[in-house]
Every structure is written in C-alpha cells, then in structure tokens.
Specification:
It is a single chain. The protein is mainly beta. The protein contains no helices and eleven strands. The strands form two sheets. Strands 2, 4, 5, 6, 9, 10 and 11 form a seven-stranded mixed β-sheet that branches. The termini are far apart.
Amino acid sequence: QVQLVESGGGLVQAGGSLRLSCAASGRTFSNINMGWFRQAPGKEREFVAYINRSAGRTYYLDSVEGRFTISRDNAKNTVYLQMNSLKPEDTAVYYCAARVNSGTYYRASSFDYWGQGTQVTVSS
C-alpha cells in the first residue's frame, strides 16, 4: 500500500506560480513511478505530468509543456509539480498518483494509488 497526501494548492492570479507537493508513505519511494492528474468541474480527469522511479524520464501534457515541471526528492519521499505562468484554464483539482509496475503513463487506470486532491484556482 502507498498513501499519498497532496499540498500546496490555492488561489493565484493568471501568470503566477504555485508548487504542489505530494508526500508518499507505506512503500519504498524510489521503487514507485509518480504522476499528476487534474480534473475541472464537468470534465474528465486528464494527465498532467509523469516521472519515473529514477527521475530519468518525464512526460507532460502538451498544454503545460514549458510551464510545469515535475520533480522528485527520494530522500523526502516527495514528488513536486512546479507550475509557472498559470492560466485560468489550469483551474482544477490536482491529484497525485503512484504505480508500482510499468504501464501507460497518461492513463489514470494504470495507476494504483491516489491522493485526495488539492484545489488550484487561477483568476483572470
């Protein structure tokens, strides 16, 4: 089992920045792959970013490429999502997710564990 707790969400003006954190426990952190997803009201949950166990490979949603950066600190059992140049369309609940085995990084169904989500609201 893996327990995930997100933090760092809040209200920010367009063009501003936020850093989300996801603290993991219950399993050796270096052995799990991590991802971020988001869900806006009335819309499907969508993939945002992914980082593998060794942090040697990352993937991003096209619309956040160049603005968001995913990273991990295995010593702290934590994954981060640095979000810069935020836009109103980035407003959503952001979820941290983890998976033990290999799979399709952009599919929510390939992840085994999920956090409770943290709200990000970007004003115009």
